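Hi team,

As requested, here is the filled-out complex form for the TLP run. I kept the field names the same as last time so the parser does not choke. Let me know if anything looks off before we queue the next batch.

— J.
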Amino acid sequence: MSESTNARNLPVVDLRSDTVTKPTPEMRRAMAEAEVGDDVYGEDPTVNRLEQRAAETFGREAGLYVPSGSMGNAVAMRVHTRPGQEIICEEKAHLYGFEMAAMSALAGCLARPLRTPDGILRWSLVKEAIRPRQGFRAPTGLIACENTHNMAGGQVLPPELAEEICDGGHDAGIPVHLDGARIFNAAVALGKTVRELTWKFDSVMFCLSKGLGAPVGSLLVGNREWIAQARMHRKILGGGMRQAGVLAAAGLVALEKSPSRLHVDHENARLLADGLTGLPGIGLDASQVRTNIVIFDVSRTGMTAGKLCEQLAAQRILAHAVNLSTVRMVTHCDVDRQGCLRAVEVMDGALRRTVVAV
Ligand code: TLP
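And here is what came back:
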């Protein structure tokens, strides 16, 4: 019997992203029982409760429930900037490279992407990129950070560096936004609260629908006045969701219950990374894996990332080809230790077959 015939009996191990998680039975129960109202009138009690809990968790005055992380970032960019300005961010930032040019299409801004070796923005770099107030330069309207940094392999932004950027930006009169899609992962990795990691940022976006396992939704948190403006921009973008309490109910469960289990995803990512390191042709430094994302180079395997992912998929292991030579695997609540070990085993088999065939 071939390996792929054997694999047909095994469950899929979906490591493409932590966005693929399915709601838990507790989330589904909460969704079925949710009290709802029209959120555009501010009358959905479950959405209101979620927004309030999010604000409390981050030590802020107010929160806003948005359908996705991308919309949260788009709203933040629109509120902080005006068309014709520049937004400083790290070169592999999600809001620059993975949001369909929303920065220009929806906020009318140019990106000022800064290259770093490790995905970590530093004030020393940012300060050089701030445009002087001159008649022919697009003024800097916003600085955006990302924590954890997705495409830098779930890299954690150290709090002292984040604070330095916020202080520097504020002294220069520039607001600082945090794409904290996975800020709870950063908090677990650093043993700090999300409040401690984010208090100096002017606005924070975080996702319920990634490691926290909710089916839909993200939040923006900030001060009352800023969130009131954000609410208007959410509506402009078509994000007024009416009886969204059925979704927010799952989000409330995610916010209360999920952070305490994220360390398991981090342990599994480390297990995966340790197993992958040393396989023929794989370029990966497992010591850099601190959260739930494992990104590795496959350019010396004799296969493109796409081809390798196809081979894995035939054995029911799903991974994401980031580009021709890079693969990403993300751990989450719907994959366990066993699944990660099987992913390593299948990868080993795929690489050995190619090496023999080459
Ligand atoms: N990231 C997704 C893809 O879009 C790449 C993923 O699979 O990781 N900020 C960060 C740091 C993100 O990783 C993502 C999603 C978003 C924002 C956008 O969130 P959604 O998908 O809810 O729009």
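Two things worth flagging: The first strand starts at residue 13 and ends at 14. The CA atoms of residues 203 and 314 lie 43 Å apart.

Thanks,
J.
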